[in-house]
Amino acid sequence: MGVFGGAFDPPHQAHVALVRAALAQLGLDELRILPTGEAWHKPRRLSPASERLAMARLAFEGLPGVVIDERELQRAGPSYTIDTLEALAAESPEPKPELFLLMGGDQWAALRSWHRWQDIAQMARLCVLARPGAPRPHLDGLAAPIWLEAPAQELSATAVREGLKDGRLSPQDLNQLLPEAVARYISAHGLYGHPQPGPPAPNA
Questions:
Q1: What is the pTM of this model?
Q2: Which of 73, 143, 159, 161 is the most exposed place for a label (fewest CB within 10 A)?
Q3: What percent of the chain has pLDDT over 70?
């Protein structure tokens, strides 16, 4: 079983690329997408859970075996990956499925700052998105992860939010950076300072 958590604020094409790579390269029957509830490691307040959940559903819709799991949004207090892994293991029937935890290279580099990171490494195979040509660092105390190959996409949700807020991103830019359905949702709901479309002009 694959496990991929994140704020998804908003979900972008690199998130989708990681999921596609995992499905293709790991042969997963099921991959759980888990929007973060209260992110302990982020200094800013996340967008409302209902909006991030809706965008996650749109971003990963139609991918085989993908399940949007809401448990972290419903959990009180900070969202810790180890809690989710333990819950998934406890509720799975015997024989217990092997857990594959997906993450980006930045998360891999920061893994030793995570809550109970040693237990995470014991419970799940760590799978990291490899950027073509980017270094693949070894972390002391951790076995080498499974490196997932996907096309280079230097995207970040922060850049998308900031670009929308200051008006630097056009609708064409959004359609390149985000799944089309997510771009439409952001536009329709005026998220991140993106202006909502006005009413159609009256006929002259």
A1: 0.89
A2: 143
A3: 90
